[in-house]
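Example 5.3 — WD_repeat_protein
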Amino acid sequence: MTAVSNVAAVQATSGATGGSAMVTFFTNTYAKPMPEQSFSIPLNTLPDGLNQLVQSVLGVEGQKFDFLYKDEYIGTTLLRFLQRRGISYEELLNIEYTPSLQAKEGSLLPHDDWVSSVRAPYRGNAELLLTGAYDHCVRLWDGENCVALGTFHHEAVKEVVLHPVTQGKSKTGRKRTRLDRDFLFASASKDGSVAAWRLDSTNSLMQLLGSIQATPTALTQSLSPLVRESL
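Solution (predicted structure tokens):
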């Protein structure tokens, strides 16, 4: 059964005039489920439009939701989201909705999308943080300031791992809060790529050292002969 009611609000929000996708909604984290039916959603609909639809159907005006398709956050129009991933809008899309997590004012670092991984490069110093996010980027933060940005991946960065650096101390005995030495780290993306980076502490630059596309063949070739023989 196709639901055409409640879609007027989505159309008004999106301003879409050409094309639509059939969408069903499900949740694993919210108490109220959406009806088991499909909705015709304009392709130019933004997450705010999806939010208004779900709020209207569930009767929960004050609750905001985030939306995911196959575990990937939807942060653009449906059309752009599907095009970037090579997904046909003629498919029936089963979209997950989950309550938005609201951070306290002043405690949220300005990322363009969900943050998937957070690491502290210097042991004993929580002011410097390395993050990977669904906007395809890795960043280094000094407090609330982004001091270095790395762009290479074409999909969400799912993990960052690094070689920890022991935090040095100044002559006064106080811990240093600035970048005082280089460090190495790696990032892994949903696009199957793994990248190796070096943080140049002098210029606060992320230098790409190399990358690999993590296909089964490439991963097998990177293993030691002893491990390969056991496969």
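Remark. The CA atoms of residues 213 and 219 lie 9 Å apart.
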